[in-house]
Design goal:
homodimer; alpha/beta; Aspartate Aminotransferase, domain 1; Aspartate Aminotransferase, domain 2; three-stranded antiparallel beta sheet; 13 helices; 39% helix; pyridoxal phosphate (chains A, B); aminotransferase (chains A, B); transaminase activity (chains A, B)
Chain lengths: 402, 402
């Protein structure tokens, strides 16, 4: 940076994300990409949205096009509050803040809760976008030991309590991005009891909860400790990400702070978008629509599970996810996912190396595969190519990875 | 705050804004409100937006409803870049970042340039929303002495230069909110020369520039020092605020930092909204539409100018604005705008006390009047009521204000 702009310490931390560079590499035509985190565009309810746009602009254009309340559109807040009952939560509409995607929920949480140097606890690995959202507020990330069910409850007692105490633990209980793992009921109870005992608030991020395949979702973490949990939800995976609509459910004492942060960030989420989405969902549309997404994604999950079993060389380890959008693979010793990516792209496929998802000590043997944007035959073909790339690397004498 | 959430220093700073409370008071039915900063809903191009929504969802639904680039929609970025030539700026589309309203531009600037305790210079008075946007990043506000043409150029030489040096000066050259004032060509040249000499970057906020009444806008501040200026623009005042669309034009060396901050904040501005607005503006729509807004606002400005001359008691001071949406009134000694507001609301009108717009040392004798949401007869009536409230207060023995 030249001398005009070079003074800010914050700017020095804002470096282009590695994932950005990775996705650029994988955007070549003809690539079977399992890299992106995009929902399938085939699931977007175009006709319902078109009818709703027309309805809103015919009946409430002046209100929809004017500045609006920072809290969000009242009827949509009521709809969200009622819907949370299915996850065991009792929510008042006054606790609901509509955000510009759930990514903004992460930003607002960082804006009011992260102080420079104060600890923030995250799962190992965790959602990259959350690390990016919190980073500008200069927290000190602490990685919580995690297994196939998520975070280890015993970790909470080990978190720093002296000033500056641990601000919060950021947890993704359902079909986590990137690992696809889900927390069992027993784990949820144990984690929330441990968090409460340690007095460490929880940020619960649940963008994938509606995308279950085998059994409906378990109670939200927030249901076990409502006054100590901020819940983040999203319309991106069940309707469309292009409208950028998410929501925060916050304890009453914290709501005014988040509201002020929201007003400072962008005044309010587009009123037009909120009214259109409310028009679409108000009469039970999602109860018909989401099962169609689930059926599609489940078939894709099955195709990828079968393909991986058939094509990956011995030594690769993975779980078949019970929902969501991702498989998480750990490669045999000697392989490095980042080093393999250019070879994979040359061979016609793409994935995301898992190293990007760690706050500390990245595991270079991990990678993430999305199964939702390709068709089952494409998935079979892509996974076969991945298997060949891995076997070639092993045959060419892989070096031990650190 | 209870012990669960009470650790964050940031949260302690996020207090509900005074203006929020004021606007709540003034939202009573039957009030002639001159308080809000809303554009006139009569100017929203409903039919053009409806046709564009239909066009986008008929032809490009999958792209418009999917996740999109953090930079913004390419054709809209090109359109913005070209349009800046009319303000004397030479802009590449690569310098344009589409934001969720220009309020988000302020947030992103704070996010990359404000460090805790570092000085940030603002006009006296200045846009309240900018103070709110920067505050979470804990800057040390420095108020620049300003007159009826904006900031005094001599102030730049007096700004702190030792570490932590002054991060930037935030300036509104056209029909400033709240004062309505405009910087002359000579003042622009002198200010930018002084900023450059002092090595203090400039944030130029220009939401009102298209709303000129008497003569077209002068060259942008950025045209005098492109590599030292970040320019913020908005579609809210010329099209609709309900789509939440604005933009940043940044020097190339700073663009990647702002882009990363944008991605962290909300991934991207709604792709659907960007495509719809591009569809509306791409063939010169604003060249036909904005003159209609200007003519309407100019007639309202004239009505308010006449009403104020007729109804305000001696000792009140104001300038007639050459564009924008606001008159700024300084009351006679002894009157306090905040104290008068409840009386004004009881009498059937509302304004915003000016004290909210100062970073330091608020002037309690100031108030802001919007002239764009009422009709000329309503303006005449509202200003007559204001005059009566002021005369009553003076007759009842106003106390000297500090």
């Amino acid at each position: 940076m030249s001398s005009i702009w070079n003074q800010a310490r914050r700017a020095a931390r804002m470096n282009p994300s590695i994932i950005r560079e990775i996705l650029k590499v994988t955007e070549k035509p003809g690539i079977l990409s399992m890299a992106g985190g995009l929902p399938s565009a085939e699931t977007f309810p175009v006709d319902a949205l078109k009818a709703a746009c027309d309805e809103v602009l015919s009946k409430n254009a002046k209100e929809a096009l004017q500045y609006a309340a920072s809290e969000g559109f009242g009827p949509l807040r009521e709809w969200v509050a009622q819907r949370m009952a299915s996850l065991g939560m009792t929510v008042s509409p006054d606790q609901v803040l509509i955000t510009s995607g759930s990514q903004q929920g992460l930003d607002l949480v960082g804006k009011i809760l992260c102080d420079a140097g104060a600890p923030v606890a995250v799962e190992t690995p965790t959602y990259l976008g959350a690390l990016q959202a919190f980073t500008p507020y200069e927290p000190n990330f602490v990685s919580l030991a995690s297994d196939e069910q998520g975070v280890d409850p015993a970790e909470f007692a080990r978190l720093p309590h002296d000033a500056p105490g641990t601000r919060f633990a950021y947890l993704l209980p359902n079909y986590q991005n990137p690992t696809g793992r889900v927390m069992s009921l027993e784990r949820r109870q144990a984690v929330m009891a441990a968090a409460k005992a340690a007095n460490v608030p929880v940020i619960e991020d649940n963008p994938y909860g509606d995308l279950w395949f085998d059994e409906p979702p378990l109670p939200a973490l927030a249901s076990f400790w409502p006054e100590g949990t901020i819940y983040l939800g999203s319309f991106s995976k069940v309707l469309t990400p292009g409208f950028r609509l998410g929501f925060i459910i916050a304890p009453s004492e914290l709501y005014p702070k988040l509201l002020q942060a929201k007003q400072a960030a962008d005044l309010h989420t587009p009123g037009f978008n909120q009214r259109v989405v409310y028009e679409v969902v108000k009469n039970g549309f999602l109860d018909e629509h989401v099962p169609l997404i689930r059926a599609r994604y489940k078939a894709n999950r099955d195709a990828m599970a079968e393909g991986l079993k058939k094509h990956l060389p011995p030594g690769c380890v993975w779980q078949s996810p019970k929902g969501g959008m991702f498989f998480w693979i750990r490669l045999p010793e000697g392989l490095n996912a980042m080093d393999l990516l250019p070879k994979a792209v040359d061979a016609g496929i793409a994935f995301v190396p898992g190293a990007a998802f760690y706050a500390q000590n990245p595991d270079p043997r991990t990678l993430r595969l999305s199964f939702v944007t390709l068709t089952p035959p494409q998935i079979e073909e892509g996974v076969a190519i991945l298997g060949k790339v891995l076997r070639d690397a092993l045959d060419n004498g892989a070096q031990p990875t650190p």
